[in-house]
């Protein structure tokens, strides 16, 4: 008999459950990357909504010199375009208007996040996430339709951002909960550090897709990402598996749990003995995943039903109950400041690069992706260090302390040339996104399965939403009007919108 090819031997070396875990890892990665892909276009299009003025009532965007109110260029402009961009963003107050769009999205996102975690605990993740992705795709595309239908109402764009911010809150608690169901705590920092690079990948793809059409038809910069999010929502509905027991261990556990799912009882493993080894408490979910082979299961056959401490411990945890988990408030406040800086870069970095390096919107959008490239390495590095040291808080604190002086000198160093700008973007991205990624993934998962919960597994979504929601409150402090270089003659000193000062 011929020997199997090396590739086939590699494939069959993994069990069925390992393949499922890899599949869920990749699927949730792509699902949330599409969410971030749809958030990026607004930052790319800002440079097109308000451009360098060739004349008209508004002042030049970044030169600081006024032009004659009655002067018009000889060329004929389309009905939906003015000398300084797209009305109403072509006036002197464009920074306030563009900032208000960001503020509308972030405010709705922060408020919705607190509600999303509570709702997500009580609904099937697959249905909840699918609804959010379809709705997000619709509202993202709706913003772009303003271009094709020649809409110049500021209220239209604000309402669209508010609705989009609300429905996007369905994403994060859902994907973190699903991934945590499949992976234990052993190397959670590394696994989630790699997985959290979906944020940077989504931002990069969003920048490239939006930048492709920004100068010719900026409406497509929103419609195409919106269609991608909606398509991924359909994929989510068809393929997402919320929990490993849904495909392997549900039949084993259901014999004991059917009569107790909605009662005041909870389940705990009763120290099974496997193959003569000394008994040791194991995580039931991990037993379902770590199979001896693809056919046999080592899921425990002996489960002891223990009465709950008080009330229904299998029900979703309350908001105040989640706040009482040790560490939730502390890490929420830490994320408040880290996310402020991260989202200021997300929404304003391309426009800042345009003003400093005088690049067009497309090139500025492409250059801004380097911040996200640095974020990929920063997230992985933070996960590896925290796993090795087993100190999540110390890792976050150290990286944030290093990020502070880096951001302070960002604007000064970035004026030294393109090479310096590239280096600072990579370094800033790593130091800012590292603790941000660690808190929103591994830390949130650890706290959502904290020992103080005494077996209640229905807290992860709520804890994740509280931490990320508090971080989203911080993002509003950098809006709606960060100081751009046209308000800093000679481009001296740090840019407050980027440093978070």
Automatic annotation (TrEMBL):
Main localization category: membrane
Cellular localization per UniProt: Membrane
Transmembrane residue ranges: 20-37, 97-115, 127-149, 161-183, 195-214, 220-241, 328-349, 369-386, 393-410, 422-445
Gene Ontology terms describing biological process: phosphate ion transmembrane transport
GO cellular component, one term: endoplasmic reticulum membrane
Keywords: Membrane, Sugar transport, Transmembrane, Transmembrane helix, Transport
Location of the region described as Disordered in the Swiss-Prot/TrEMBL record: 56-77, 474-501
Topology class, membrane: Multi-pass membrane protein
GO molecular function, one term: glucose 6-phosphate:phosphate antiporter activity
Domain Major facilitator superfamily (MFS) profile as annotated: residue spans: 27-501
InterPro entries: MFS, MFS_dom, MFS_trans_sf, Sugar_P_transporter
Family matches, as Gene3D superfamilies: MFS general substrate transporter like domains
PANTHER family membership: GLUCOSE-6-PHOSPHATE EXCHANGER SLC37A1, MAJOR FACILITATOR SUPERFAMILY TRANSPORTER 16, ISOFORM B
Family that this chain belongs to: Belongs to the major facilitator superfamily. Organophosphate:Pi antiporter (OPA) (TC 2.A.1.4) family.
Protein name: Glycerol-3-phosphate transporter
């Amino acid at each position: 008999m011929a020997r199997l090819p090396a590739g086939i031997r590699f494939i069959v070396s993994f069990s069925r459950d390992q393949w499922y875990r890899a599949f869920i890892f990749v699927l949730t990665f792509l699902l949330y990357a599409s969410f971030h892909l749809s958030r990026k276009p607004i930052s790319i299009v800002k440079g097109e909504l308000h451009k360098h003025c060739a004349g008209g009532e508004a002042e030049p965007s970044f030169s600081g010199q006024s032009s004659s109110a009655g002067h018009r260029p000889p060329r004929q402009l389309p009905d939906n375009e003015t000398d300084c961009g797209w009305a109403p963003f072509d006036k002197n107050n464009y920074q306030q208007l563009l900032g208000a769009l960001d503020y509308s999205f972030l405010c709705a996102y922060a408020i919705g996040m607190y509600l999303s975690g509570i709702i997500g605990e009580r609904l099937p993740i697959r249905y909840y996430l699918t609804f959010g992705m379809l709705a997000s795709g619709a509202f993202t595309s709706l913003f772009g339709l303003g271009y094709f239908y020649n809409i110049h109402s500021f209220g239209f764009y604000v309402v669209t951002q508010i609705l989009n911010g609300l429905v996007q809150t369905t994403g994060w608690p859902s994907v973190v909960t699903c991934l945590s169901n499949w992976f234990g705590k052993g190397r959670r920092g590394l696994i989630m550090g790699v997985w959290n690079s979906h944020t940077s990948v989504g931002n990069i793809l969003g920048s490239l897709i939006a930048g492709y059409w920004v100068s010719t038809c900026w409406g497509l910069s929103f419609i195409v990402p919106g269609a991608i999010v909606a398509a991924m929502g359909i994929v989510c509905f068809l393929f997402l598996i919320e929990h490993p027991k849904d495909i392997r261990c549900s039949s084993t556990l259901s014999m004991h749990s059917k009569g107790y799912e909605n009662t005041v009882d909870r389940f705990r493993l009763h120290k099974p003995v496997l193959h003569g080894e000394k008994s040791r408490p194991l995580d039931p979910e991990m037993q379902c995943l770590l199979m001896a082979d693809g056919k046999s299961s080592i899921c425990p056959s002996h489960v002891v039903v223990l009465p709950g401490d008080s009330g229904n411990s299998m029900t979703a945890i309350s908001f105040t109950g989640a706040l009482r988990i040790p560490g939730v408030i502390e890490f929420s406040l830490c994320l408040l400041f880290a996310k402020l800086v991260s989202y200021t870069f997300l929404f304003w970095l391309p426009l800042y690069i345009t003003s400093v390096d005088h690049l067009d919107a497309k090139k500025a959008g492409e250059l801004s992706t380097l911040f996200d490239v640095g974020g990929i390495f920063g997230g992985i590095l933070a996960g590896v260090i925290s796993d090795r040291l087993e100190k999540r808080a110390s890792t976050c604190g150290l990286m944030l302390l290093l990020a502070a002086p880096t951001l302070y000198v960002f604007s000064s160093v970035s004026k030294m040339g393109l090479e310096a700008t590239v280096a600072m973007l990579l370094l800033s991205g790593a130091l800012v996104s590292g603790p941000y990624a660690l808190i929103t993934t591994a830390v949130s998962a650890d706290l959502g399965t904290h020992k103080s919960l005494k077996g209640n597994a229905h807290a992860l979504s709520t804890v994740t939403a509280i931490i990320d929601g508090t971080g989203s409150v911080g993002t509003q402090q950098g809006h709606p009007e960060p100081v751009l270089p046209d308000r800093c003659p000679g481009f001296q000193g740090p840019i407050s919108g980027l440093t978070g000062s």
